[in-house]
From TrEMBL:
This is Sigma 54-interacting transcriptional regulator. It holds the Pfam family Response_reg. It comes from Igneacidithiobacillus copahuensis. SUPFAM superfamilies: CheY-like, Homeodomain-like, P-loop containing nucleoside triphosphate hydrolases. Coiled coil: none annotated. One of its GO terms (molecular function) is ATP binding. Residues 6-120 form the Response regulatory domain. CDD domains: AAA. One of its GO terms (cellular component) is cytoplasm.
Length: 457
């Protein structure tokens, strides 16, 4: 049983909600509740439940509309639907939209708990407290972002299989870190993880790096060379920036993947290899295919599963967490007595555009640590490291809809649930700020509780 996994319960019947909460808490699950679909979506944006159990018929947003929204934004999150209005058409529609289970009220409590157990057995909801190589891979990816958590859920599912994976994301988003985590959570974890940047070599040298070469195969080939495919045998080969690979070499890579064997440059014999390939690129490979710069057949061979890494600007709630992590590392590495970041400096970090993503954030923090003469990094140092391209907190009056909700969530995460500090950052009084929180069903206590948990994945 996946003890301590989070379950979100959604029902407009307060008595049933209370009963379900007691039953699941006694089974060892962490429980959060919502009275309707809109409130549930707000909870999903703040927390990251491993399972949703929802009523079908509710005011404002019913269970089917909630299911549709979850499938759009959290495609791997399992959903169990309960209803007193069960019908074959409803069940069929729910099944078509990817519901995990559909139970009709009055339902048997043991049957519901059996479905909950089955959901955790068949999905990526891993028990807390896991250790070893698998846990170490995920724990290196620090996040409080619901978008990142949804991505990591997909990655955990992928890790258990042996399918080829393509990671798409801008430079600096952590594509290799994610690839390493997938490898360490896979059955191949005890075999090598080998990485190569396909854009860092000219064509002939890249071919030799991948497949190896025989002595005398070309000028300068003074001895036999074992390629990365052989070095990764039994493990994982990570092909970073695969979109930069020349077309002629794409043909040879495709043949190696199809035949599961390689031929070193200058050799006549082939060598069998067993590798899982994870590839990555900042390029849009579908556009590259349309413009005849990337082969269709190789694309479909590599992109069995595609994972989209969000830019840092899309997960701004992670910036304080990452900044503090990078500060600790940089302070230790540079033997500096720097122990914190001033609130004004943190505000600059959170509102900066970050075109270089997580890598740029790490560099900014490193520079600030090296130049700091005090135990706390102030705004001038951060502004200097950002080359004066600092941003400002967007006024809430200019924000609408989903952006406004995400804005509030980011502020509450930054301040660890302190409404006074959050209201000050937003330039609003406490009364107005509380009104905004209630509009989006955001409970300050939720953010205080989050802080007690490990920030790691």
């Amino acid at each position: 049983m996946a003890k301590q996994a989070k379950v979100l319960l959604v029902d407009d019947d307060a008595d049933l909600l209370r009963l379900l909460s007691l039953r699941m808490k006694s089974a060892g699950y962490q429980i959060s509740t919502a009275a309707n679909g809109r409130e549930a979506l707000s909870q999903l944006a703040v927390e990251h439940p491993a399972l949703v159990v929802t009523d079908l018929k509710m005011d404002e947003m019913d269970g089917m509309a909630l299911l549709d929204a979850i499938r759009r934004d959290y495609p791997t999150l399992p959903v169990i639907i309960l209803t007193a209005h069960g019908s074959i058409p409803d069940a069929l529609l729910a099944a078509n939209q990817g519901v995990f289970a559909f139970l009709t009220k009055p339902f048997d409590g043991k049957e519901l708990m059996a479905e909950v157990e089955r959901a955790f057995q068949l999905t990526a909801a891993a028990p807390q407290g896991k250790r070893g190589k698998e846990a170490a891979g995920w724990e290196r990816i620090l996040t409080r972002s619901a978008k990142m958590q949804a991505l990591l859920d997909q990655a955990r599912l992928v890790a258990a299989a042996d399918a080829s994976v393509f990671i798409h994301g801008a430079s600096g988003t952590g594509k290799e870190l994610l690839a390493q985590a997938i490898h360490q959570a896979s059955p191949r974890r005890d075999r090598p993880f080998v990485a190569v940047n396909c854009g860092a070599f000219p064509e002939q040298l890249l071919e030799s790096e991948l497949f190896g070469h025989k002595k005398g195969a070309f000028t300068g080939a003074a001895s036999n060379h074992v390629g990365l495919f052989q070095a990764a045998d039994g493990g994982t080969l990570f092909l970073d920036e695969i979109g930069d690979m020349p077309l002629a070499l794409q043909v040879k890579l495709l043949r190696a993947l199809q035949e599961r064997q390689i031929r070193p440059v200058g050799a006549t014999e082939t060598i069998p290899v067993d590798v899982r390939v994870i590839s990555a690129s900042h390029r849009d490979l579908e556009r590259e295919m349309a413009e005849r710069r990337f082969r269709d057949d190789l694309y479909y061979r590599l992109c069995v599963v595609t994972l989209e890494l969000p830019a840092l600007a899309e997960r701004a709630e992670d910036i304080p967490l990452l900044a503090e992590h990078f500060l600790r590392e940089a302070a230790t590495r540079n033997r500096k007595d720097v122990r914190g970041i001033a609130p004004e400096a943190m505000e600059l970090l959170v509102t900066a555009p970050w075109p270089g993503n997580v890598r740029q954030l790490a560099n900014v923090i490193e520079q600030a640590v090296v130049l700091s003469t005090t135990p706390r990094i102030g705004a001038p140092l951060i502004r200097h490291a950002l080359r004066d391209r600092d941003g400002e907190v967007v006024p809430l009056a200019d924000a609408k809809g989903r952006f406004e909700m995400n804005y509030l969530i980011q502020l509450m995460r930054m301040t660890r649930g302190n409404v006074s500090q959050a209201a000050q950052l937003a330039q609003r009084n406490r009364t107005e700020f509380y009104r905004l929180l209630r509009r989006y069903h955001l409970d300050p206590a939720t953010f205080k509780e989050d802080e007690e948990e490990s920030p790691e994945t």
